[in-house]
Amino acid sequence: MTSTDSFRQRRRVLFVNWYDHLDPKAGGAELVLWQLATRMSRAGHDMMVLVRRPKGAASREIVDGCKIVRIGSNELLAMFLSILFYAIRLRRRDQVVVEFVNKIPYLIPLFRPGPHIVFQHHFNSDAWVKEFGPFGWLGRLLERWVYRLFYRGRDWAVVSNSTLEELHSLGISPRYTRIVPNGADHLAGTSSPEKFDAPTAIVISRLRKYKSVDVVLRAWQGVEARLPDARLLVVGSGPELAAYEDLIASQRLKHVDLIGHAARDHLEELLTRSWVLLQPSFKEGWGLTVMEAARYSTPSIAADVAGLRDSIVHESTGVLVPYGDIPAWTRACVELLTQKGECERLGRNAREWSERFTWDQTFSEFLEVFEHVTARP
Question: Residue 55: CB partners within 8 Å, gap ≥ 6?
Answer without folding.
Answer: 73
